[in-house]
Amino acid sequence: MKPAQLNATQPKGTQPKATQSNAEQHKITFESDITQMGVTGYLPDCATTVIHEEVVARVRKAMVEDKHFYNLANLFKMFADNTRLRILWALSHEDMCVCDLAALLGMTKSAISHQLKSLRLANLVKYVKQGKVVYYSLVDCHAKEIFRKGFEHIME
Question: What is the pLDDT of residues 113-124, one digit of tens each?
Fold first, then answer.
């Protein structure tokens, strides 16, 4: 019964008594089951009735700190931009200067430099100055491996 509806036998101006719904009764049972199992950090509105405590315990033990997930998300953000991907792809084949990257990708030197700065801050590219020319390259083989795995995945 909705709170705004009145029963014919109910006096005007009074609210009907609330009864527990099946979902509320289930939640109470679920919460007491969880408490007895010693599991913390659950979602109280979760309708799941089966919890594999040993699985959760193993994964919780193997779980890395949140800061590592944050850092990984920032790394993947670098791969979420088409321009940065094209720069990384080019650098996975040859060390290149800003002018050559700009010519290859049909972009301004300023736009390339801006993206290279982000890639440097993410520790994906490094540079070496030879005279007046600055050459950029991948820091290590990890970016190249991410490309290989990514293309392998999308080509399946």
Answer: 999 999 999 999
Structure tokens at 135: 């050459």
Residue 34 burial by Cβ neighbours in a 10 Å radius (0-12, 13-18, 19+): middle
Residue 92 CA: distances (Å) to CA of 27, 88, 156: 54, 6, 22
Answer whether 142's CB lies under 8 Å from 151's CB.
no
| pLDDT at 13 (0 to 100) | 54
Q: Which domains does the chain have, with CATH numbers?
A: 1-63 (no CATH), 70-155 (1.10.10.10)
| CA–CA separation, 32 and 29 (whole Å) | 5
Confidence (pLDDT) at 1: 44
In this prediction the pTM is 0.64
| Contact (Cβ atoms closer than 8 angstroms) between residue 117 and residue 81 | no
